[in-house]
Specification:
This protein has helices at about 40-50, 75-85, 90-105, 120-130, 170-180, 205-220; strands at about 5-10, 15-20, 30-35, 55-60, 110-115, 135-140, 155-160, 185. It is α/β, with parallel strands linked by helices.
Length: about 220
């Protein structure tokens, strides 16, 4: 459904991105921020899903600054590789690359952002710092609690699992109390519950979170 394109960040860095277009007139744009596994088949399928829902979906290759074309699965070895690359990507680099995707999606109309795992943290940071966004959705971003003082400047929705060993549920509840104007949901699920290629996939939680996310995008993007 989609194709690979190139984006240019504000500092001149050229990165790849996966772009999926809807069949009719776009409702707006959605930027999809990857996990630590690159723009792999799962992230492409997520982007394709948003395109089917009427949005121009762009998934920037956030690891291109360190390793071009990074794309791995979910084995322990893949996870170790992903962590190693992610450690070399600063938040500043990630924001520049996400913002390049936001600009590329803007001709479609209003733009929302959604991120998963590490991408959830980047979506949170973008909500507080990046221009051009109408709203943001963060799925189980491990670094969100460490950046809780960066207040979202646009409507935000967060999805977390109560069995997530990486993100203490007490911290998520504190986050929800700190930002009552935003929507924070907790599911009976583990980390990575949205990804149907992972052992932690939880179909009911993924379905409910996606329905909420889509309604949120319908409200704020179009």
């Amino acid at each position: 459904m989609g194709k690979m394109i190139e984006l240019k960040a504000s500092d001149g860095h050229v990165l790849s991105a996966y772009r999926a277009d809807p069949s009719g007139k776009p409702r707006g744009g959605i930027v999809v921020i990857q996990e630590i596994f690159g723009v792999n088949s799962h992230i492409k399928s997520v982007a394709d899903g948003f395109a089917r829902d009427g949005y121009v979906a762009i998934a920037p290759a956030m690891f291109d600054r360190v390793q071009k074309g990074f794309d791995v699965g979910y084995s322990p070895a893949d996870m170790a590789k992903g962590r190693e690359v992610r450690a070399k990507v600063t938040n500043d680099m990630a924001l520049k690359d996400a913002e390049a995707a936001i600009k590329a999606a803007a001709p479609a109309g209003k733009v929302g952002i959604v991120g998963y795992c590490w991408g959830g943290t980047i979506a949170w940071l973008c909500a507080g710092k990046s221009p051009g966004l109408a709203c943001a959705v963060a799925y189980y971003g491990g670094g969100i609690l460490d950046n809780a003082d960066i207040a979202p400047r646009v409507p935000l929705m967060g999805h977390f699992g109560d069995k997530d060993q990486h993100i203490p549920v007490a911290g998520v509840k504190q986050l929800a109390e700190k930002y009552p104007q935003h929507q924070i949901f907790i599911y009976a699920a583990d980390h990575g519950f949205n990804c149907d290629q992972r052992g932690s996939y939880n179909a009911p939680a993924a379905k409910q979170a996606r329905e909420r996310t889509l309604a949120f995008f319908r409200q704020h993007v179009g």
